[in-house]
Design goal:
mainly alpha; 318 residues; globular; two-stranded antiparallel ribbon; binds Phenylacetyl coenzyme A
Length: 318
Amino acid sequence: MDNNEDYNKNLLEFERKIEAEEKIEPRDWMPDEYRQHLIRQMSQHAHSEVIGMQPEGNWVNRAPSLRSKKILIAKIQDEGGHGLYLYSAAETLGVSRDQFVKWLHEGKAKYSSIFNYPTLSWADIGAIGWLVDGAAIVNQVSLCRTSYGPYSRAMVRICKEESFHQRQGYEIMCDMMNGTEDQRKMAQDAMNRWWWPSLMMFGPTDNDSPNSQRAMKWKIKRESNDKLRQKFIYKTVGQAEFIGLTVPDPDLNWNEEAQHYDFGEIDWNEFYEVIKGRGPCNKQRLETHIKSHQEGEWVRDTAREYNRLKQEVKKELV
Ligand code: FAQ
């Protein structure tokens, strides 16, 4: 336990680094609240990437062509990889991946609200890539400048891959909008269902975001929930209009003076219901994760045994 004098000295050095835009690295001293904040956010982020594989996985067997199937499988695999980078980066804070997964299964750790919605048609795969990855990128580009080194470096790599995903989704939406009347209807229906949940991904408004103040002070977050939400809307409305999709918000209006879009009220009741576990697919998502985790036990056992044998052989050779 630090005594008071040591604590204050360490805190001053920590704050100096944050102020000077130097990254905090795993072996550096950090306040416990900073560590706990990152453990919460990074593990939730990792869980989101992995749970996010499920809604898309629903369409692998029904992709409309071999090309689209191959692209979708590659994208889902990328998301699994993002989960792995993030779990590894989060483990540098002193918590094991087994523990993160245990917290998820016990309902103590969250994952993004967006993955509790169902994928009802192929257009939903377009909407996920375009809107969900699009929203994720806006948030993650900002997180590339986060103050914790391993998180920041993971974000740089993840963002490069997410931009492919966003384009893959937009390509599906373009193709459908250039297709038959039924395909255009399907694309608009997906837009109607995914637009609002995508805006919710950025979290509650700045006034209702309990974690933001501390996150901004320590430069874990570089921009507020509302600011990022605005950026996403600004970036996306033109893309929707360009291919003839209507944003399902009658209150959406360009505000010349503020240089942003004013938009309608988000249904925060729905958001809180979903993050409390009462969204359309929460139960199914968690059950699927628990089941595949249990079924994968033999793979983890084999890997552990392989490592043990490798160590033994090494010892014998010395
Ligand atoms: N869903 O005080 P704040 C992706 C919770 S990756 C669920 O504002 P904070 C890639 C929040 O945890 C998507 N819960 O919290 C992909 C807190 O509860 P807690 C994931 C949410 O942390 C694409 C409470 O509400 N990205 O999509 C949500 O400052 C396609 C109060 O909120 C990240 O995780 C939500 N949407 O800000 C994969 C980015 N929003 O923990 C597959 C990293 C808020 O105190 C397919 N995370 N809550 O019990 C962040 O930037 C932040 O954590 C926020 C929330 C912005 C999500």
